[in-house]
């Protein structure tokens, strides 16, 4: 191909590129006059090629971008390669749009061409960018909103925490204010009953005791539910005998059943584990509530407590307690709500039978915390069956050896086959010295009487400061106390402060905390202060005896006088 032919091809190629180009290309002289333009100038700017020729390039630039354009022209003169700039262009009709302009100076101007300019439409790109910018801005706004809501949530949680703390403190103080007088009421009624010979007096005292015990149970239910709702409820899982728990409940409620002419019976399989890991106090609380309700709502017939084992798999074995009665039953429409707080079977139930409607709610929550479930089946006027199911740990495989097959037993409160060992009928010795610390005179008098009944030598103090002074004096005289019973809520100096002082001075005498608080991890709080163990008011004589016997030196033991 000759050079002439090559030039012809190049000219034809260049001509076709100018016709097909989407971008707008123009040739501009040194004055800025458009000498030539591609056909695309008509589509983008609304100018025909002929009309555009002779116009100044500034006619294609938006007024808002003219100053930027002038600076760009000056910059372009000093560089051999064109650098693109984003600015606003103007159509023939005056409308504007975003463009990318590239100006490149011609090294060897021919036909008066000083610049080659290329306009590229950026409208869609700008729209996309604007959408992206809007999206980013919305994200920023969303993030700011999330931060604002997070701050509000944290503020609300702080308010809730303070409210829960206030509620906790209120309930703890309420517990203390109620349990302390209840300790005196129940304790002194026990003493009156032991020394009263008249039948009428015995009956009046039993009325006081029964109503006091009922009031205490209501208080306990409210406090337990409050602890569960606030997430401040702890259980203590230990190895225990399920049949021993069963027997303790039966022995406790047998007199009530007999008084109503009801037969209280138990049935259990020989495959019942000898030991399971659970909280025996809470399991007993649940079973006691179910049996108590069964007695309350049954007028004739019997109540059965059935204990069974079942296995869904080798690693998932279930221990099941079922309490069935022949009582008034529950209407079908009420079964779905029977476990809700303050719910009774019908509006007349509370009037006829009493109760707050908290017992079943608390029982189900306790069973769930123990890792099981509480369900009910009932037929109106025929009776109810409440069933507790507990999932056992895989290693709980020790079975009872006594009994053959499935056996039936009639409960007898005098039986001792599966009850706890009988109390060791020995006192803790009259050589033992105990310091009793409590700010309530009636409580000091009651506990002094009970401790004297055990043959113990009792000294008293009314607050923590008096107690610390007496203990220091006794240690200095080489006559230290063997045991201290310390109320924790006292004026002048609390039991917590007193115990901490004793431990700081390395006085090792055992300290048993006696407190009416029963809400905010009281046992752990007492132990953290340095107490050896913990008792919650009201304290029964047998519980006090067992605790004192546990920590006193085993010497000078005398026969305990229960009379």
UniProtKB/TrEMBL annotation:
Repeat is among the record's keywords: no
GO terms, biological process: regulation of DNA-templated transcription
Pfam families per record: HATPase_c, HisKA, PAS, Response_reg
Domain named Histidine kinase: residues: 173-394
Coiled-coil residue windows: none
Classification via SUPFAM superfamilies: ATPase domain of HSP90 chaperone/DNA topoisomerase II/histidine kinase (SSF55874), CheY-like (SSF52172), Homodimeric domain of signal transducing histidine kinase (SSF47384), PYP-like sensor domain (PAS domain) (SSF55785)
Broadest EC class assigned to this enzyme: transferase
UniProt keywords, alphabetically: ATP-binding, Cell cycle, Kinase, Membrane, Nucleotide-binding, Phosphoprotein, Transferase, Two-component regulatory system
GO cellular component: membrane
KW Cell cycle (keyword) present: yes
Compartments in which it is found: Membrane
Record-given protein name: histidine kinase
Protein source organism: Gimesia chilikensis
Gene (name only): luxQ_3
